[in-house]
Structure formats: C-alpha cells, structure tokens
Amino acid sequence: MVQPESIKWHGEARSERKYVNYKRYNAVRMSTLARIQDLAAKEFSIDPTRLDPHVQLDTLGIDSLSFIEFMFKVEEEFGVSVSDEDLKGIKTLADLERHVVDALAAAGKG
Fold first, then answer.
1. Domain spans, the chain
2. 11 conformational bin, left if phi > 0, alpha if psi -120 to 50, beta if neither
3. Interacting residues of 89 by C-beta distance below 8 A, sequence separation 6+
4. Would you say 46 and 57 are in contact if contact means Cβ atoms under 8 Å apart?
5. Which of these CATH numbers, 1.10.1200.10, 3.40.50.1370, 3.90.1150.10, 3.30.365.10, describes 4-106?
6. Which long-range contacts (CB under 8 A, 24 or more apart) does 95-101 make?
7. pTM of the model
8. What gap in Å lies between CA 68 and CA 4, rounded to an integer?
9. CA 48, 66, 77, 97 torsion: positive or negative?
10. Cα separations (Å) of 84 from 28, 44, 81, 87, 89?
C-alpha cells in the first residue's frame, strides 16, 4: 500500500496544488477512501456496498452526533484534526477523504 508520507508536493500554481506523481496521489486517495469507508461501515453498521462516497451521509441515516463521534475515530486513525469550520463542509465520505489527504499533506505527512 502506498503511504501518504511518500507523496511530494510542489508549488501553489493558480490556487491549485500540483502533484508530482498523479498516479501515486490517486492511489493514496483511493487507499484513504477505502479506509474511511471501512471505518464508516463498522461504525454505522452499514453494508459497505451502500457507502457511495458521493452520497450525503444524512441520506444514509447518519445523524450529526453519530458523525461527530465517527470523526474522532477518523482523526485518531489518520492522525489529523478536523476543525468545527471544516466539519461544516464535510457532507460525504468523498469530502472527508479530500480533507484527510489535504490535512496529511499540510502536516508534511503526505
């Protein structure tokens, strides 16, 4: 498995991060998403096949309190933190995956 630590960043062109190795970055993203989906399936007792990363979590019956408890587990799993402000923008597992990958990169772990 590709570890997030192996991704190298360079520059901030046109307000977008550019990645030195797109394949490796995508592999890390997919690995991160798979780990998040696995955590969510266990936490919410949901069949993993129902966890479309682009479906809003509230449509799966996940309430805000349960989601906050889940976020603590994600923070522990990945060693990142999610601010209250960031939490407001996370509506899907794909949103969460992007936040985790960006947080790892910002912390120099990705």
1. 4-106
2. left
3. 95, 99
4. no
5. 1.10.1200.10
6. 96/36, 97/29, 97/32, 97/33, 97/36, 97/53, 100/32, 100/36, 100/74, 101/4, 101/28, 101/29, 101/32
7. 0.71
8. 24
9. positive
10. 25, 21, 10, 5, 9
Tokens of 97: 């995956």
- From CA 99, how far away is CA 101, in angstroms rounded? 6
What residue has token string 């601010």? 83
Structure tokens at 15: 């307000």
Structure tokens at 67: 């989601």
Token output for 73: 């587990």
Tokens of 30: 């997919």
Which tokens sit at 84? 């209250």
Note down pLDDT in tens along the chain; length 110 residues. 444 444 444 444 444 445 445 556 566 667 899 999 999 999 999 888 888 999 998 888 888 899 999 999 999 999 999 888 988 999 999 999 999 988 888 877 65
